[in-house]
Amino acid sequence: MATRDIYESGFDEDVQTESSANQCPECEGRVTTNAVETVCEDCGLVIEEQRIDHGPEWRAYDDEECERTGAPLTAARHDRGLSTEIGYGTDANGNELSGQKRRRLARMRREQTRGRWRSKAERNLAHGLGEVRRLASALELSGSVRDQACQLFRSAQNEELRGRSIEAIAAASVYGACRCNGLSRLVDDVSEMARVAESRVTNAYKTLNEELGLPAEPVSPSIFVPRLASDLECPDRIRQRARALAEEAEERGVTTGVHPAGFAAACLYKAGQEQEKWVTQGDVAESGNVTPTTVRTHHETLEEYVA
Q: Which of 32, 76, 128, 290 would you label with 145, given CA atoms 20 to 30 Å apart?
């Protein structure tokens, strides 16, 4: 007698599917497969078991509490995000701790701080990555660009680039990540938020570019047009016209060796003059962090080469 004739199927059992391609190796009976195993319905032989549990790894009764066991690995931390933090004052349920337990946690926290870094190089890495995260947050960069900057700092430390401070290499890593992603960030913007001078950031970036061979392309003025237009609150037609002027100048090769933000400011000034909108050279120069003389020079170039 077949097992399907002995045991009745309930409503809570897994839906079984028949496998017409395979037959039972013992009795050549009908084989069915559910979420757990493959069995023969005639003789009851278990042909194959699936030991992988496809269910969730959490135990929660609310969808908002369905969390996995920890955050993913990240390059923004010196230990890839696998460290443990000891809290203050309360336990996991939010209950107040007694004085004895708080003193015990303070001692544990002190010992953990002492043993967090295994070497001086790892301590410097933690300090440098913290500086990279601070700069990325101040410049409002995305998480992917921040992680690229952190990975660039790791590569610089592995190459043992000496003669540069940690702050300078961190700022250069952020600027290098911006250049590799085509973002409209200048050395002035990064050095303004950094804790070192602009010259040191520039020298550190040159060292990174020479030693690591960064895939950074030359910065084009058309990248800076939307940023300057947003600062000046220009209308869309002026922004589009300035973008067209910058792209045409790039095609003609006029922008070789020029300050990209200054040339973009000149494009906005020329577009504003064409649309009869009074945008002064001082306003666009201040937005591009250049002098009015630079804007005037690039404006004369546009008048001569670009229609």
A: 290
* Residue 43 labelled as part of a binding site: yes
For residue 178, say whether it is annotated as part of any ligand binding site: no
What pLDDT, in 10s, does the model give residues 18-74?
Answer: 444 567 888 888 888 776 678 888 787 887 776 565 555 555 555 555 555 566 777
H-type alpha helices, the chain: 3-6, 99-114, 120-138, 143-158, 166-180, 187-193, 198-212, 225-232, 236-252, 260-274, 281-288, 292-305
66 is in an annotated binding site: no
Q: Give the strand order in the sheet containing 31-33.
A: 17-18, 31-33, 37-40, 46-49
The answer to whether 27 is a known ligand-binding residue is yes
Q: How far apart are CA 183 and CA 205, in angstroms?
A: 16
Instruction: Give pLDDT tens digits for 258-278.
Output: 888 888 889 888 888 887 776
Gap between the Cα atoms of 295 and 275, Å rounded: 18
Q: Is the distance from CB of 141 to CB of 178 less than 8 angstroms? A: yes
C-alpha triplet 27, 28, 33: angle, nearest 5°? 105
Q: Please tell me whether the overall predicted TM-score, pTM, comes out greater than 0.70 for this model.
A: no
